[in-house]
Design brief:
heterodimer, A: about 300 residues, mainly alpha, globular, disordered N terminus, B: about 425 residues, alpha/beta, Rossmann fold, Coagulation Factor XIII, Chain A, domain 1, 2 domains, 6-stranded mixed sheet, 20 strands, about 20% helix
Chain lengths: ~300, ~425
């Protein structure tokens, strides 16, 4: 009997959570425990996460002539614009680094954060029609967004590496160091932070649509509160602590320091970022969990 | 271990009506504060039932209240009720799309729900890609889908277009593919909502057949919501009938369908109270159907009794009372008069009269009809020509062979006694 087998296996795996002696595999009730993430469920739906990632890629560049080349055009054009506006006209210093790798480094890692956050924050509203019809762990969607943006980052990072490599060989202005090994950790921090923030926003936008408006330009403004287009070292002292209170600052700064060799690296700042990330992620999951059960009624 | 697959206990869902969103921050805060202190929601007036036809006093409505029932393993439970009776809310709770306000549902086994076919289909992706995506959304793993892929494509019958983006599909192909994916889910409990109202007749038949397989052969538990009484009657073992958010009746198939049809028919002779006819010769008193129990819904397999009551004021020759039966397309299916068989009864002396009869069973097809009363004096004038009409509905439950569920073409649906013998053994 397949049924009996399944029920037994299911019982064994969930036995602890569903405290029911009669052998129910699932109990649907008004409220869940705050931190019940249902990660086991997400794992069972891991194929779905990968299919969502695939869907994102295929659907974005279908019927475009340039296709994936857009991945490169966007950061390149942004960088050139920044070089002209901030570097050329406003003459904001770059810590003595060539402008191209300086801006490109900032933009590459910032884009990862910004795109993940904006996409995650509309998860509920954008997918209301699917969510209203069928159950699957809601967490799969934000996770798939983080992953597909990671792939996108990977491609843009490749572009950055090419530019970086060129400057490394041709000029002597870059001084990469061993902190490069920290890159995965920086990325994980960045991903989790945007995931956490995105979950908070997505949960709140189901009720208050204003937040979606706020977010679109809020992210743009937030970039100026992060050392993306300027080095941390050139900040006046009275603003410096403000910028450092932003948990993204030390991540961006560490990334640039590792690859370009100028700027600063500070374990204390980085651990602060990690702590904030953890708190944001925690709050995000709690809010997300609370909303996912009933949001179809309000969205 | 008992054999109960789903146990619904005291289930209720409170919905908020009207605008949701702006200007509710203060309400939200006071509600949160009340909950924080362990008080009841200050904005919910408890006990308001869900009747969409009357305007309630509070902004909150119980779209489901005090619902208790159990479903045994392997049982097919039909769920019926008017629009807004709470069926969809129940299905949404069961499929975990939304959470209940109170009560609980205990489930044994994996649930898959088909509240809609083709959920998550992306127009830019090909049929093949969408099969995987949709399957995964419905809870299948990649391996499971791959093992069933050929069957799915075969069932949908669109093999040729499998690598074309679904946005280029006709709506029929789209639905076929969508249903095909759903049909090959293998959960212990399947929840189906009206998905059968799609596709052409041939495909609907295929879908119903597949549903029957799922319950009969595979022994899975199925919850099935539909307005199609024939499909419900054919598939279900048991029925729950919902009314205004409450479980009004549960039990046997025929019993519940009768109850539902009766409860939801409009009073067929209500419009007669306001009908007056100034005629020197004739006074119309009443026309009614004899089998009052079902209101204006009848089964094709039952005869439909009717009764005319009228007063003749002056002696009349050639007075005829009767009616036309008219279908949805304004075709007159037939006309009948009280004196069709009896020449004498068209001569009336003054007095009160009653004429009754019945429309034979197994004559009309299922569907909606209008009965238009016809009263006239032959070759002189119509007394009542087009003024009085009744709408009736005929439901097909067990008239034709119930192994087939497709729509029978034709204007009428008589049952003919066929005899089939084997002439020799091949």
């Amino acid at each position: 009997m397949q049924t009996a087998e399944y029920t037994k296996a299911e019982e064994a795996s969930r036995g602890a959570t569903v405290a029911d002696q009669e052998g129910w595999t699932e109990v649907i009730e008004p409220r869940t425990r705050l931190l019940d993430l249902g990660l086991k469920d997400v794992w069972r739906y891991r194929d779905l996460v990968m299919l969502f990632v695939r869907r994102d890629f295929v659907s974005t560049y279908k019927q475009t002539v340039l296709g994936p080349i857009w991945f490169f055009i966007q950061p390149l054009l942004t960088t050139i614009t920044y070089m002209i506006v901030f570097g050329g006209i406003a003459k904001i210093p770059t810590d003595g680094l060539p402008q191209l790798p300086f801006y490109l480094a900032g933009i590459t890692i910032w884009n990862y954060f910004a795109q993940t956050l904006t996409a995650t924050s509309t998860v509920f509203t954008a997918n209301a029609s699917i969510f209203g019809k069928v159950y699957f762990p809601r967490l799969t969607l934000p996770l798939s967004i983080v992953l597909s943006n990671l792939v996108r980052f990977g491609i843009q990072f490749g572009l950055f590496l090419a530019v970086w490599g060129y400057y490394l060989v041709r000029e002597d202005s870059l001084h990469p160091n061993l902190y490069i090994l920290l890159t995965p950790i920086l990325l994980i921090l960045m991903g989790l932070l945007s995931l956490g923030l995105g979950m908070i926003f997505s949960a709140m936008t189901t009720k208050y649509r204003d937040l979606a408006m706020l977010l679109t330009f809020g992210v743009q403004l937030f970039m100026y509160a992060t050392p993306v287009i300027y080095p941390l070292s050139r900040l006046p002292l009275q603003y410096k602590f403000l910028i450092l209170a932003n948990p993204l600052s030390s991540i961006v700064e560490a990334f640039r320091y590792a690859f370009l060799g100028s700027g600063s690296f500070n374990w204390l700042y980085l651990s602060y970022s990690a702590a904030v990330t953890l708190v944001v992620l925690l709050v995000g999951t709690v809010v997300f969990n609370k909303v996912e059960k009933n949001f179809t009624d309000t969205v | 271990m008992s054999d109960i697959a789903i146990k619904v206990e005291n289930l209720g869902k409170l919905y908020r009506l009207g605008e949701i969103g702006t200007g509710t921050l203060s309400n939200d805060l006071s509600r949160t504060w009340a909950r924080f202190r362990g008080k009841e929601d200050p904005f919910a007036k408890i006990g308001e039932t869900n009747d969409r036809t009357t305007k309630g006093t509070s902004d909150f409505v119980w779209s489901l209240k005090d619902v208790n029932f159990e479903v045994k393993q392997g049982e097919v439970l039909g769920i019926i009720g008017r629009n807004g009776a709470g069926k969809s809310t129940l299905l949404k709770i069961l499929s975990k799309v939304t959470a209940p306000t109170i009560g609980s549902v205990k489930v044994r086994g994996r649930i898959a729900s088909l509240l809609e076919v083709g959920t998550g289909f992306h127009p830019e992706l090909t049929g093949r890609e969408n099969i995987f995506l949709n399957g995964a959304i419905l809870g299948m793993t990649k391996v499971e889908i791959r093992s069933k892929f050929d069957e799915i494509v075969d069932f949908s019958g669109i093999e040729r277009y499998i690598d074309t983006p679904v946005k280029r599909y006709s709506s029929g192909m789209y639905v076929r593919l969508a249903f095909a994916v759903s049909a090959f889910l293998e959960p212990e409990i399947l929840i189906v909502d009206e998905v059968l109202a799609v596709g052409d007749a041939e495909f609907q038949k295929k879908c119903l057949g597949r549903m029957k397989d799922v319950s009969d052969k595979d022994g899975r538990t199925v919850l099935f919501v539909s307005h199609n009484m024939a499909a419900i009657a054919n598939l279900s073992n048991r029925i729950c009938c919902f009314e205004n958010g409450r479980l009004a009746k549960q039990g046997g198939v025929r019993e519940c369908i009768d109850y539902y049809l009766k409860a939801n028919s409009t009073k067929h002779n209500s419009d007669l109270t306001s009908f007056t006819l100034a005629d020197p010769d004739f006074r119309f008193v009443n026309f009614e159907f004899v089998e009052v129990g079902l209101g204006n819904v009848f089964y094709t397999s039952n005869k439909i009794g009717f009764k005319y009551v009228y007063e003749v004021k002056q002696e009349a020759h050639g007075l005829r009372v009767g009616f036309d039966i008219i279908d949805n397309f304004e075709n007159i299916i037939f006309r009948s008069f009280h004196d069709d068989l009896d020449k004498e009864t068209s001569h009336f002396l003054p007095g009160l009269y009653e004429s009754s009869g019945f429309i034979p069973a197994n004559l009309l097809k299922d569907g909606a009809y209008i009965i238009r009363l016809k009263i006239g004096i032959h070759n002189v004038r119509w007394i009542i020509d087009e003024q009085i009409e009744f709408k009736i509905n005929l439901a097909k439950i067990d008239s034709l062979n119930t192994n087939y569920n497709d729509e029978r073409p034709g204007l009428t649906m008589p049952i003919i006694n066929w005899t089939t013998k084997q002439i020799y053994n091949a």
